[in-house]
Structure formats: C-alpha cells, structure tokens
Design a protein that fits this description.
The protein is an alpha/beta fold. It contains 12 helices and 12 strands. Strands 4-3-5-12-6 form a 5-stranded mixed β-sheet, with helices on one face. Strands 9-8-10-7-11 form a 5-stranded mixed β-sheet. A two-stranded antiparallel sheet has the order 1-2.
C-alpha cells in the first residue's frame, strides 16, 4: 500500500500547524483553509490514530498527552521535508542563513565571516540580527548564535564561550573628572548598563559597599551593542568585554581603568535544527567557528 494511502499526510500538516499556533482558526489562516476544513482534518487524523489529539477550549486548543508525544517527531519530519525541498531548489548548498545577537554579529562575525567565504566560495552567507532565540519551526535559518543561560530544547547546541566584563569609558569622559584613579571615581560619572545589579556585583568585587547611582544612569536592558556605542560616544561608563572592544581599546576610543572583571551569567551558544545535523554547510560553519575563535576563549570562560 502506498504511504499516501496509509498516512493522511494533509491531516498531519494541519495537526502541526494547530499544535504550533494553538488555534484552529489561526492554523486555517496560515494554511488557507476554513476552520471547518481544519476540524475535519484533525478528526480524520484522530480516527487514524485512535486517540484525541486536542482538548478544544473557547480561545485555544491544547494538546492531549498523545498529541504531545506526536508533535516533536512530526516537527522534525517537516524540518527534514523543508531541507529536502531546499536541496531540490539548489538552496541548501547555496545559502547559509545565520541569525545572531546584534553585538556578536557586528563586533565579531561581520569582521571575520569573509575568511569563511573565501574557504567556501560557492556558498553565500546571509546574516540577520536577532534579539531572541530562533524558532527553527518557523524561521528558515541554518544557524543561530545567541546569549542565554541554557539553549532551547530540541536543537543541536554547542557552547561557545562565556565573557568577562569590566568598566570601560572614553578618555575624554575620564578627563572631565581629572582621570580615573580609584574604582570610586567611576561612580562620579553616568553609568551605562543592562541593570544596576551588574554594577552592584562589580562594585562588590572592588569592595564598594552600597554604591549610589546617580540620576544619569542609562539602562539599555542588556543591549550590549548600544552600551558600547554609548561609551565610545562619551555618554557614560559601561561594563564591556575586551573580546568585542579590543580594537576600541587599541585605538584609544575606550580605556579600561581596572583589570577586574565580572563573569557573565549567560553563555553564547551556537545552535542549529536537528534536521540539519548532517548538512555540509552547517558542519563546515561549526568547524570554522571552532578554528577561528581565539584559543583563550574556551567554553565556560
């Protein structure tokens, strides 16, 4: 018997959409189907499986235990199908799509990716900046690089590194108070950061108890690229990493008064969908990252 007669493939496609979106109505809008047609396909699949797959509620549909068990493998199967179609369109080997946090994209990846392209001249690279982890079920990305405590589930994850941060500022700003001689001098200037708890932690390392922050404190909510640019422009002192700002230190755009560093509580991860673990371009990029990142920047550091 043919596979198409044994498995209601269209119903499986509808099931994946409803499970991902949590709504029969939204799944119908995405698939170009009426809600009645969506309901029919789900009933068809439930008859095939012999179990209910959703608990219908007024505004959302929740997976049953059977539906929860089915979803991961069905999602992975659709990922494999997407890759197979991309291969057929000669896109799988032609374009490598990378999603990255803004700071890593602009301060490291964009400056080094040319070496990767020289090694793989037949591969075009597309880099998009992201603020949150990629959902590979919806985004057609091959690789994502982002900073978090843990990687998301159901992906291939490689721990890259954990950075150290220390106060940096423009020399002109330091001159406005006659230079930085002690850690306490930094508190005379506007501070830049993703949260005052970071500064409190660093102050504790240099034995400043109960630091007082002035009214000019600038909170960037963890946007490291904004913090760096604001510090270079002389708007305040930021907790930055020499990994991203060594050029700024070398050229004098920034100075680092103290070599006392706070370890990041988040890790940079390189992730890719499990469906592409055998993709030659993904394997090549992972290896290039391992070979190109500085040797002192080991995971967990």
């Amino acid at each position: 018997m043919k596979l198409s007669r044994k498995v209601p493939l269209n119903a499986v496609r509808v099931f994946e959409a409803v499970a991902r979106l949590g709504s029969f109505t939204r799944a119908g809008e995405e698939l170009g189907m009426t809600q009645t047609a969506v309901s029919y396909q789900i009933r068809l699949l439930e008859d095939h499986v012999g179990e209910m797959l959703f608990i219908r509620q007024a505004r959302r549909s929740i997976l049953t235990a059977t539906g929860e068990r089915m979803l991961p493998k069905i999602s992975e199967a659709f990922g494999l199908l997407t890759d197979a179609l991309a291969d057929a369109r000669e896109q799988a080997d032609g374009i490598l799509e990378i999603r990255s946090t803004p700071t890593f994209a602009s301060h490291w990846l964009a400056r080094h990716i040319g070496a990767f392209q020289l090694q793989h001249p037949g591969l075009a690279v597309r880099i998009l900046r992201i603020e949150k982890p990629v959902d590979f079920r919806q985004d057609n990305a091959d690789i994502a690089i982002f900073r978090s405590e843990e990687p998301p589930a159901d992906v291939d994850a490689q721990e890259l590194f954990r950075l150290q941060y220390t106060p940096m500022l423009s020399p002109k700003l330091a001159d406005t108070i006659g230079g930085i001689k002690t850690p306490e001098d930094l508190l005379k200037l506007p501070l830049i950061g993703g949260g005052q708890e970071w500064w409190r932690s660093w102050c504790a390392m240099v034995n400043i108890d109960n630091p007082t922050f002035g009214p000019n404190y600038m909170d960037t909510y963890g946007a490291l690229d904004l913090e760096g640019n604001a510090a270079i422009a002389g708007h305040g002192v930021a907790l930055l990493s020499s990994f991203f700002h060594q050029d700024d230190l070398d050229t004098g755009r920034l100075i680092m008064p103290f070599d006392i560093c706070k370890k990041d509580d988040r890790t940079y991860w390189l992730i890719s969908p499990k469906s592409r673990r055998k993709s030659a371009k993904v394997i090549a990029f992972r290896q290039w990252m391992t070979d190109t990142l500085p040797s002192w920047l080991s995971p967990g550091q």
